[in-house]
């Protein structure tokens, strides 16, 4: 397993470099001028100096190489300087946002906590709800609980967040006045009262995102459990006199989790990517809203950095999913 992991990590390096090149070339084809947002009062010669400082007057391959060096060499040095108080990155040019004229990674670090609070919590809640529903629905196939769960999950699949978000705002904020419609990203939790305020403003965006996660994972869990409940080893375990709870929750569940692990692991990068629609509906100042703003502003360094971070997370969690296969099923070996 260790050899497989090291081999996959080495192979991921050219994969990520190719992905970064594709992202960079696609963004170079995007229309628009990053200097368009500069005020008209700025003299033309100053604009030209700003253009040169941003690297806009250089060939594409030079711009790409500069970005690679800044992302893989300079930004890690900045992180080391922050942790250990060193000065490796002092005076070196970092990845700069064309829109804000500030380092991209500093902005990303500022936005990640808000995204993890809302999107991360919704993902955890969705998993905790979906797995028991899927297990019980498969065990009680065609029961009232199974049919009700199927109906609710179909609603979760069918209704998009840009509909459920405003609908919850109209019902629970406008009509009932229970929850705030706008997420206050400046709110700081210091005591029980401030925690209640944070909890109340998180309920609706978490509900919207958890509904989709629950709908998807519960269907996968149910299908996987049904595939395993009819296997020969289940009948053998029951014939040996094992308790039904042990058969279902140990033997069947462990084998059923193998395909579900893939869906869960591949969904983790979406947490860091944020929920673009939901974050904009509830005004959550997270990564998703940051990416949308950068796209509208033609902020190529910001968009490229964010999309490449997502690519790194996808490759990483694909590897984690493969390793978990071997943990859950001893028959799977990567030798």
Provide structural commentary.
There is one protein chain. By secondary structure, the protein is mainly α. The mean pLDDT is 78. Helix 7 packs across helix 9 (244-273). The protein folds into 2 domains: 15-84, no CATH class; 105-328, MetI-like (MetI-like fold, Orthogonal Bundle), CATH 1.10.3720. The longest helix has 38 residues, at 192-229. 25% of the residues are buried. The protein is globular and about 85 Å long. The protein has helices at residues 2-28, 44-53, 60-84, 104-139, 144-158, 161-175, 192-229, 232-239, 244-273, 276-281, 287-296, 300-328.
Short summary:
By secondary structure, the chain is mostly helical. The protein has two domains: 15-84, no CATH class; 105-328, MetI-like fold.
CATH class of the largest domain: Mainly Alpha
- Average pLDDT for all residues: 78
Computed CA radius of gyration, to the nearest angstrom: 24 Å
SSE succession: HHHHHHHHHHHH
Question: How far is it from the N-terminal to the C-terminal residue, by CA?
Answer: 7 Å
Q: Which class best fits the helix and strand makeup?
A: mainly alpha
For the report, how would you describe the main beta sheet?
none
At the fold tier of CATH, the topology name of the largest domain is MetI-like fold
Beta-strand portion reads under 5%
Helix content: over 70%
Number of domain units: 2
Q: Counting H and I runs of at least 4 residues, what is the number of helices?
A: 12
Q: What is the CATH architecture assignment of the largest domain?
A: Orthogonal Bundle
Low confidence ranges: none
- The CATH superfamily of the largest domain is identified as MetI-like
């Amino acid at each position: 397993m260790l050899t497989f992991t090291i081999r996959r990590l080495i192979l991921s390096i050219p994969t990520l470099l190719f992905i970064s090149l594709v992202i960079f070339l696609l963004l170079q084809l995007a229309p628009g001028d990053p200097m368009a947002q500069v005020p008209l009062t700025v003299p033309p010669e100053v604009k030209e100096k700003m253009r040169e400082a941003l690297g806009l007057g250089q060939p594409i391959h030079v711009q790409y190489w500069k970005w690679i060096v800044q992302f893989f060499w300079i930004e890690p040095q900045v992180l080391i300087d922050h942790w250990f108080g060193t000065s490796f990155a002092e005076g070196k040019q970092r990845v700069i946002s064309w829109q804000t004229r500030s380092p991209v990674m500093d902005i990303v670090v500022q936005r990640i906590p808000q995204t993890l609070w809302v999107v991360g919590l919704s993902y955890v809640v969705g998993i905790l709800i979906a797995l028991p529903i899927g297990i019980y629905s498969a065990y009680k196939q065609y029961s009232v609980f199974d049919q009700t769960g199927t109906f609710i999950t179909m609603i979760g699949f069918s209704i998009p967040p840009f509909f459920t978000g405003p609908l919850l705002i109209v019902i629970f904020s406008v009509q009932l006045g229970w929850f705030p419609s706008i997420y206050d990203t400046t709110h700081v939790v210091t005591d029980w009262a401030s925690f209640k305020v944070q909890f109340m403003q998180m309920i609706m965006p978490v509900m919207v995102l958890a509904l989709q996660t629950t709908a998807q994972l519960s269907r996968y869990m149910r299908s996987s459990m049904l595939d395993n409940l009819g296997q020969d080893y289940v009948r053998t375990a029951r014939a040996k006199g094992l308790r039904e709870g042990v058969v279902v929750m140990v033997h069947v569940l462990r084998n059923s989790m193998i395909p579900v692990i893939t869906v869960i692991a591949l969904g983790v990068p979406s947490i860091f990517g944020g929920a673009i629609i939901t974050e904009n509906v509830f005004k959550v100042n997270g990564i998703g809203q940051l990416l949308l703003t950068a796209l509208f502003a033609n902020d190529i360094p910001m968009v490229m950095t964010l999309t490449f971070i997502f690519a790194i997370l996808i490759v990483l969690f694909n590897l984690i999913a493969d390793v978990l296969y071997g943990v859950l099923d001893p028959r799977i070996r990567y030798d």
